[in-house]
Amino acid sequence: MQKIAENKVTDQAKSDIWFEDLIATIHSHKLIYDTEGFGDKNFNKYYDTMIKGGGNDLLILSQDTVKSVIIKKMIVEYIKELNDKQIKYKKLAIDYNNSGLLTWFVIEDNDFDTEAKIYLTSAKINTNFYELGFSISNSIMEESDNLRIPEHYQILK
Fold first, then answer.
1. CA distances from 3 to 8, 16, 157 (A)
2. Is residue 157 over pLDDT 80?
3. pLDDT higher for 45 or 9?
4. Dihedrals phi, psi of 151, to nearest 5 degrees
5. Is 113 a residue whose pLDDT tops 90?
6. What residue ranges define each of the domains in the chain, with the CATH number in brackets?
7. Which residues face 58 on adjacent strands?
8. If you average pLDDT over residues 91-101, what whole number do you get?
9. CB neighbours of 47 closer than 8 A, spacing ≥ 6?
């Protein structure tokens, strides 16, 4: 019986500490928000949306923020993996949508080894992000295709 009481006290203490930290964080955020030019654009936009009481707007903003963080992490992991495997491509351009990363590769003609490595690398990265609803979709062109990279893609190499 005493063990149950100790657990309740411990749980209560944990929740007290958590709420105190939350309140302290909110106070520090208010100071940042009130200081002109100190908070970044997304920080202020988040609180502006909360202050206006726009529940749906807040959900959309949160979704956009999460998507941005995941896509950035996905890009970093993907580029690192491409470099680690020393995959030789002529050009790489990227874009993203609501469900993941879009890639546009230009490789040498008939370089089936590079093409296979790109697909395998994408599959490896996809296993890290599929549970979050994100994946990589590749477009692989050969040099002789002479296709322009779509304008909405950002050229990395």
1. 9, 20, 62
2. no
3. 45
4. -60, -30
5. yes
6. 2-64 (no CATH), 68-155 (3.30.70.1770)
7. none
8. 90
9. 29, 33, 39
Q: Cα–Cα distance between 51 and 53 in angstroms, integer?
A: 5
CA angle 139/140/143 to nearest 5° reads 135
Nearest Cα to 101, choosing from 133, 69, 136?
136
Residue type, 149: I
**Separation of alpha carbons 59 and 14, rounded Å:** 28
Q: What are phi and psi of 96, to 5 degrees?
A: -145, 160
At position 91, the amino acid (one-letter code) is K
Query: What one-letter code names the amino acid at 113?
Result: D
Cα separation of 118 and 65, whole Å? 28
The span from the CA of 122 to the CA of 87, in Å, is 12
Q: Is the pLDDT of residue 45 over 80?
A: no
What confidence tier does 9 reach under pLDDT thresholds 50, 70, 90?
low
Please determine, for residue 89, whether its predicted confidence score (pLDDT) is greater than 60. yes
Residue among 138, 41, 17 at smallest CA distance from 82: 138
